[in-house]
Amino acid sequence: MKKIAIIGGGISGLYIANLLRKNSNYEIAVYEKNNSVNLEKGYGIQLSVNSIKLLNKIGFQNINLENKFHPNKVDFYSLKNKKMICDLNISAFNIAEAKYTTLQRFTLINFLKNQLPDSFINYNKKVTKINYESDSIEVSFENSASIKCDYLVISDGIFSKSKSLIAKREIKPKYFKSIALRATIDRDSLDGIDPNNISLSLGSNLHSVSYPVDNRGQFNFISILRKKLSINELSDFSLFESKDFISSILFEISKQVDTDIIKNLKDIRCFPVFVSSEIHQPTNKNTFLIGDAFFAYPPTFAQGASQSIEVAHELYKDLENLTHGFNHERIKKTKMINWKSKFNYFAFHLSNPLLIWIRNTLMKYLTKNNRFINSYLGKIYKS
User: Fold this and answer.
1) Under a CB-based contact definition with an 8 Å cutoff, are residues 287 and 152 in contact?
2) Of 122, 1, 98, 28, whose CA–CA distance to 315 is shortest?
3) Do 212 and 69 contact (CB within 8 A), yes or no?
4) CB of 193 closer than 8 Å to CB of 210
5) Which residues contact 81 (CB under 8 A, 6 or more apart)?
6) What is the spatial distance between Cα 117 and Cα 128, in angstroms, rounded to a whole number?
7) Is the pLDDT of residue 382 over 80?
8) N vs C: which end of the chain shows fewer Cβ within 10 Å?
9) Model confidence pLDDT, tens digit, residues 142-170
10) Element containing residue 110 per DSSP (H, E)
């Protein structure tokens, strides 16, 4: 029986643990640096058809329908004139056993955690050292404890310390020169939109998204604002919890977003947007990176959670079949999604009137062009 250590109890780490626990060839354990799995309530995620199909392999289809939502379309709006530009039918990607899904992050994490026996997750395990021996990998933790394993799966997020340890150099994500403001809002406070759809509003150096996260009328709201920050500001983590800083971001957003929406936002949080600056490939053939530790994308496809699930499943199949093709295939798809995410970000944040007119005209045509949609989105939203 091979021992697999999974570093990090996030979406990708918990998902692959669920897959591996059914394989009698492996003994698995999850090592989480915090004293609990993050079950932060309220904020939403979006899951593509392909990721739902993969989650259904471990019983996700049995989740109460009230706790998730299946949007029909993405409605694109102009923040300047408050008019709809066009809509995109994302339900076209749905299949009989899986639909594009929005839900609270809490719902997914709780589902993944509850599928595992309590003994599988070890808390307060901060990795301090990783040593490669001839026939095993030794992982040391902050409290002087250590374990040995045959395979090491690193899934501890974009600020992964473990990734730097195996690379023997500090690997830092890059600030994307953007601030994300996320909040919750009730459906009654979102006049003028179709509550069955995702609403994506495009402004000048700003885009905002609202979408339902369950069937009870709870909506997620997020705005991405271009904003330069100094090195000192980025290193001051307390800044982003400061009421003055949050108020200043709300003020910037309120110049374009309806003030009735702004005043009805709840559970508001701000955070800087970081993305991966490189794809790191471990030199040890039994060490793997998944989730945001592998690569974190700009937030324009809302597919971070989906890609975490897909990459975890690809690794599981690689371990199961001993194909050793995991990194090669994943890198190809990662580069494609990263390029498209950056292009979307550029297109969403235009300020020149002529460029905006060209963009809107193209969007009206391209969102109804099946060949383009299947090429541009199909490779991301479905396998």
Assistant:
1) yes
2) 28
3) yes
4) yes
5) none
6) 26
7) no
8) N
9) 988 999 999 999 999 999 999 999 999 99
10) helix 105-114
Strand order in the sheet with 151-154: 121-122, 26-31, 2-7, 151-154, 287-289
On the 0-12 / 13-18 / 19+ scale of CB atoms within 10 A, 382 is middle
CA distance 143 to 156: 18
Whether the per-residue pLDDT at 338 is higher than 90: the answer is yes
Q: Is the pTM of this model over 0.85?
A: yes
Cβ partners under 8 Å of residue 378, min gap 6:
93
Contact 140, 149 (CB under 8 A): no
CA 132/CA 245 separation, integer angstroms: 45
**Tokens 């490189």 appear where?**
278
Give the DSSP H or E segment for 291.
none
Sorted by sequence, the CB contacts under 8 Å of residue 19 that are 6+ apart come out as 57, 58, 312, 313, 316
Least confident of 35-44, 163-172, 241-250, 312-321: 35-44
Q: What is the pLDDT of residue 221?
A: 95
Query: Residue 134's pLDDT band (boundaries 50, 70, 90)?
Result: confident
Rg (CA), the chain: 21
Q: How many CB atoms lie within 10 A of CB 213?
A: 25
Mean pLDDT, the chain, rounded, equals 92
Lowest mean pLDDT across 7-21, 36-50, 114-128, 331-345 = 36-50
Burial of 25 (C-beta count, 10 Å sphere; 0-12/13-18/19+): exposed
Which is nearest to 351 in space by CA: 207, 179, 176?
207
Which has the closest alpha carbon to 266: 314, 219, 315? 219
In contact, 223 and 180? CB cutoff 8 Å: yes
Determine what percent of the chain falls in helix, strand and coil, rounding each to the nearest 5: 40, 25, 35
d(CA 382, CA 304): 14
Specify the pLDDT at position 380: 81
Packed helices 11-20 and 304-321: angle between N→C axes, nearest 10 degrees: 30
pLDDT band at residue 39, thresholds of 50, 70 and 90? low
DSSP 3-state of 229: coil
How many CA atoms lie less than 13 Å away from 207 in the CB half-sphere?
21
pLDDT digits (tens, 9 = 90+) for 310-335: 999 999 988 887 666 677 778 888 99
